[in-house]
Structure formats: C-alpha cells, structure tokens
Amino acid sequence: MTPSYYLSCTRNSTTPEAFLVLYNSHFYRTKHRSPFFPNETSLLLNPQPLPQKSLLPILRLNNSKLTHPFASISSFAEADGGNGQEGVNSNRHRESEKTEQVADLRGMAQAFNISSRTASAISVCIAFAALTLPLCMKSLGMGLKTKLLSYATLLFGFYMAWNIGANDVANAMGTSVGSGALTLRQAVMTAAVLEFSGALLMGTHVTSTMQKGILVANVFHGKDTLLLAGLLSSLAAAGTWLQVASYYGWPVSTTHCIIGSMVGFGLAYGGAGAVFWSSLARVASSWVISPLMGAAVSFIVYKCIRRFVYSAPNPGQAAAAAAPIAVFVGVSGISFAAFPLSKIWPLAIAQALACGTAGAVLVYRIIRRQLGHLLIKSASSQPEANDNVIQNKNIGFLSDIAGPKGTQLEIVYGVFGYMQVLSACFMSFAHGGNDVSNAIGPLAAALSILQGGASGADIVIPIDVLAWGGFGIVAGLMMWG
Predict the structure, then answer these.
(1) What is the mean pLDDT of residues 423-429?
(2) What is the 3-state secondary structure (H, E, C) of the chain?
(3) Which of 33, 108, 264, 324 has the fewest CB neighbours in a 10 Å radius?
(4) Does residue 460 carry a pLDDT above 80?
(5) What is d(CA 201, CA 432) in angstroms, rounded to the nearest whole number?
(6) Which residues contact 362 (CB under 8 A, 6 or more apart)?
C-alpha cells in the first residue's frame, strides 16, 4: 500500500504547520478538499515508490508560508545528486552562498533578538563611528602629514582590537551562556560594559611590555620610520589572522598573534639581536604557567565547594554563606589592581577591602531577596541524616559524589547561578584590561614615533587611546563575538 502525506492548512490561513518526511521522491500532487472539514484544504502527496537509502528526521515547519499550493515542496527534500534533483542542488547552493554572506549579521540578530536589517544598520553605524571618531581624538597630533599617518595608525589599532573582541571575549562569557545563567543578549551587553571598563581602567598595566619588552629599541635607533612600518605590519598581520580564525570559529590567542608578528618583524630586520629574548621568555613562560595555575585554582575551588557546600548538613545555607566570601575575595583583588589610590600599601589595601566588603554586602542582599523564602524553608525543616543528599553510584571515578536535592538543590542552583555570572564578569573585566594591550601597545608606540618621541622612551598612554581600544573590542564582540 502506498502511503499518503498531507500538508493541511485552513482556507484563510497561509501559515500551515506540518510534519514532512521527504527524501528523494517524486510526488503525485493532488489538491484535496476534505468533506468532513470544509474549511480545510489539503495537499495529497502520493510518493512514487523508490528504493530509499535513508530516512531524514522529521522536520517541523513552523510559520512557513506557501504562496502556491505546490510551491516550495521540493525545497524541503534532500537530494543526493540523482533522480532529477539538480534544480534542488542549485537552490541549496544559492541558499548556502546567501547564508555565508549574512552569517555575521545573523549572529548579531540572534544575540539582540532583532532583524537582519537592523543588525546591518548597527554594523554600518559602528563602521561610521570607527571612521569618524579618530578625527576628534587629541592623539592625532599636529600637522597634516602627522594627522593622516596617525589616522591610519588608529585604524590599524582598531582593526586589531575589533578582532580581539570577535575572538577572545567568548572565553569569558561562553560558560555563562552554555550553562543557561545568562541569555546571549545579556552576555553580550554585560561583556561589552566590562570589557570597555577593564580596557579603560587597567589597560596600561601590560602595555609597557608590548611597547618595550619585545623588541630591542637600540637596534632601531634613528630608524623610526622603519619601526613605525614594522609596528603597523604587526597589527595588520595579527588582525588578519585573528579575523580568519574568527570566521572559521577557531579560538586562538591574541597575545600569541601580536607577539609572533612583532618577533617576526624584528628577526626579519635585525636578526636575533633585535628581539628582547629575556622578556620574551617571561611572556612565553606565562603561556605554560597560566593553564597550570588555572587548573590548580579550579581544583582547590572545586574541593572547597564539595567539602563545605555539597557535603554540609544544610547545603543551601552553606552556599548562601559562601557566596559573599567568594565575592569579597574577587572584588578586593580586582579593585587593588585597578584602582590604586596611592602607592602607599596600607591605603591601597584599605581601599581594596572596602570595595570587597561593599560587593559582598550587595551579593548577600541580592541572595536574601531572591532566595530568602527558600532559605527560610530550608532552615525550618530539619532533614534526617543523609536525607538531604543524593548518592550517585557507578559513574566512573566520581563514584562517591553527593549532591543536594529538593529545596536545598534549588538554593544551591540559585546561588551558583549568581556566582557563575559574577565569575564571568571578573574574567571579562580582567580580559579587557589585559588583552587590550595587544592592540594599543603597538598603537601607542607608533603614535609616539609620529609625534616625535624616541623609539625607546617611556610612553604615556592617553585616555582616548585606551577608550579607542575598548571601543574596538566592544565593536568586535557585538558584530562577530
């Protein structure tokens, strides 16, 4: 018996919802009016019996408009290149090309829940701002030639910063989106604010290494034009590679890119003597130490959570008590690094402790407001021994893991949801302060050369250059991140 498939819609509706299973089949199409449902029109699809190679999953089509009774039916079929399916393959090829052209706009549209046209307009506005804002910056210098070269240099720096935002920011916010703690839109907006703040407030901490710690300045003494060309070439090369990696979805290190570009320029001009190898060794050692330190700290934090929260008699109360402590430590460390009011250690430490205390109190109040009813419920109930945990057996080497359940589980999930977001915020802020130097370090050195500074002199990073780097990171995050 030959099966029939129906595509049904009401007479006044043009947005049918149907389930189709189509695969490499020719259909005898017949318009059919049901005698039992006079307001419903159906398409009777009788497939020609052909040997099936495989079955596609059921494809649900929501709000798909059919302007003709038989229009677009074949577009849902997947062809294997035979049985007269060349037209379908051609349509799929054109659709693939169109998809590649608007992939970046679709990403922005998905993040902000806007149309592709609106995303395109935002991209145009960002490009317009990138071309016009440098004209208002004091770092352009004096004289027409200096201004033109400074303008081009700022565009090179923006290109590098844009690619940093497109590639690296996902390292900070990806876990929050993946765990469901933040939506994609919330993650993008939060990262934009924190990345810019980190670049503006902490961007000078690593910039000096990028300016003077990679290349030996004496080798380029009296050859400032050559050094300027090398710095711009490094920015262009690193930015191009980052854009290629971002296009294909490869998470790469922006620090590796810019340092490799500068080392390559130095070796090409002055050989091994043009590279500051001792400083480069310290930078390269961090590429090994950082993952090891991250693994060690992660292990310690996990053990503490396992011991003092999950295994506590009341895990919900323990999680609510641990969250302010963790925030105090994180905020104190960041404020000590970002806002040193004085070089006097007691004053700087007092400032950090004050900021940490304020952050801990704020988180404590938020948790009590959002989860207070659950905390009261968990405190009033006195579970029996081992009644507040679930023992999971036979799950590999983690055979003894215990976890809360019921109200306790709700509290723990709620608290750690806040902690997940806060840890991502800390990382995003630190990333903005650290990685913006990969763009503004060579940029500031090039601007200093254009304005008459010596190649090895100390360079003061203007606030507008820091803001320019932060804007580039945010723009890359919004468009491609």
Answers:
(1) 86
(2) CCCCEEEEEECCCCCCCEEECCCCCCEEEEEEECCCCCCEEEEEEEECCCCCCCCCCCEEECCCCCCCCCCCCHHHCCCCCCCCCHHHHHHHHHHHHHHHHCHHHHHHHHHHCCCHHHHHHHHHHHHHHHHHHHHHCHHHCCCHHHHHHHHHHHHHHHHHHHHHHHHHCHHHHHHHHHHCCCCHHHHHHHHHHHHHHHHHHHCHHHHHHHHHCCECHHHHCCCHHHHHHHHHHHHHHHHHHHHHHHHCCCCCCHHHHHHHHHHHHHHHHHHHHHECHHHHHHHHHHHHHHHHHHHHHHHHHHHHHHHHHHCCCCHHHHHHHHHHHHHHHHHHHHHHHHCCCCCCHHHHHHHHHHHHHHHHHHHHHHHHHHHHHHHHHHHHCCCCCCCCEEECCCCCCCCCCEEECHHHHHHHHHHHHHHHHHHHHHHHHHHHHHHCHHHHHHHHHHHHHHCCCCCCCCCCCCHHHHHHHHHHHHHHHHHHC
(3) 33
(4) no
(5) 9
(6) 327
- Span 265-287, average pLDDT: 84
* Amino acid 2: pLDDT: 45
Q: What digits encode the pLDDT tens for the residues 345-363?
A: 778 788 888 988 998 999 8
Contacts of 414 (CB under 8 A, 6+ apart): 367, 370, 371, 374
Radius of gyration of the chain (CA): 30
Confidence bin at 237 (pLDDT 50/70/90)? very high
pLDDT exceeds cutoff 50 at 68: no
Burial of 198: CB neighbours in 10 Å, binned 0-12, 13-18, 19+:
buried
Over range 44-53, report the average pLDDT.
Answer: 43
Q: Is the pTM of this model over 0.70?
A: no
